[in-house]
Amino acid sequence: MDLQLKGKSVVVLASSKGLGKAVSTEFAKEGSKVLISSRNQEELEKTKAEIQEVSGNPNIDYQVCDVTQADHIKQLIEKAIDLHGTVDILINNAGGPPAGTFDHFSDDDWQNAFELNLLSFTRTIREVLPSMRKQQEGKIINIASSSIKQTLDNLILSNTFRAGIVGLSKSLSQELAPDNILINTVGPGRIATDRVANLDEKKADKLGVSSEELRKKSEQSIPMGRYGEPEEFAKAVVFLSSGANTYLTGQSLVIDGGLVKAL
């Protein structure tokens, strides 16, 4: 299947490691022009070199970007347009907020999580829409969490604002369809990233067990019997962003090996 991604201008947020890096790598393998971003320039330089080596694609650039800063987001999209003339595909991504229950968090904690996990997505979409509308085509993927289908214990901030992403995406799918701009939300389940390892470690400490024991127990709850690999998640994102997807919009897809039981 031809995914029609060669030469496409792609912006991926929070992409120096984890899911963002995996997604960027898969786009690079398809011949896209990829602009990666994160807060850490050193990590971005390293990731750029790694993606170029793995993919053989020289068209990888980076921009330092703190997604909680409106001016950083504006500069990121401006750079993509300066480099490639447009933005064909936007992959919204951000690190997860702190773990904890309701009583753990202050107003500042709630505000910070809102800016990180919902307002940042709103701002990037606002910045890319003029370019996408002009060409009457575009794809937007919002990376959230499996909590968009089933809430996760001890992650109330994530549960709240990831759900907001779904509402945003569903509403925009109707507003943007006349411009042939497709938008979908993708929620990772237990994917083997640093974020998941960190959450597992904290939970293991709380329960007084090793991280290895906790992971083994977690894997037993997944029908496929293992954590997903970042590359597996990335391939689904790339498909939804590709020319092979011409009609699927406003949907929320969980990639979790069958873990979530909610309909």
Automatic annotation (TrEMBL):
Q: Which InterPro entries match?
A: NAD(P)-bd_dom_sf, SDR, SDR_fam
Query: Per the similarity annotation, which family is this?
Result: Belongs to the short-chain dehydrogenases/reductases (SDR) family.
Q: What name does UniProt use for this protein?
A: SDR family oxidoreductase
Q: Native species of this protein?
A: Halobacillus seohaensis
Specify the taxonomic lineage.
Bacteria, Bacillati, Bacillota, Bacilli, Bacillales
